[in-house]
Each structure stands twice: as structure tokens, then as C-alpha cells.
Prior knowledge:
3 strands; three-stranded antiparallel β-sheet; single chain; globular; 3 helices
Amino acid sequence: MEKNFKALNIKCGGCANTVKEALREDFGEVKVNLEQSPRVVSVIIKDEEHEQLFRKKMRSLGYPMDDEELGVFTATGLKAKSFVSCAVGKMNQ
């Protein structure tokens, strides 16, 4: 079933491209709505384990979900990681 997640730190098409490419193998077509804030990422989720994989992969790219409790240091680290992911996404467009 397609599920929507509100993701933090996604700013532009470079970020969206990184997310789509990184998740394609495990989730197929990934949609990123850049017109909403926080950004909405839509993917097909099979079960709870699959959702946890999605959340883990997004966090590893620097894009946690808006429902996650983040400390200041964690949030700052993830934001820095998202800048790198964004730059990679821009180069691969």
C-alpha cells in the first residue's frame, strides 16, 4: 500500500533525486512532493519491517521523518548529512 511520510531536510530537486535513487531498489517508484513543507515522500510499504527499512534508509541519507524525536546534536548531524546527499543528487541529475 502506498504510504506518505513527512521528511525533514529535503530542500530541492537534488535532495529528491538522491532519495529516489537510494530507495528505488527496495521500494520501486518513489515520489517526493517538493511543494509541501515538510516534504512528503510517497512509497509502497509492504509491512512494519519494510517501513522500518524505509525510515532507516532515509535517516542514513540525512532525511529523518518529522515524527522522530531528535536531539540537537542528532538533528544537526542529520542536517549536515543531508547537504552531502543533496550535492550528490545534484551531480547525478
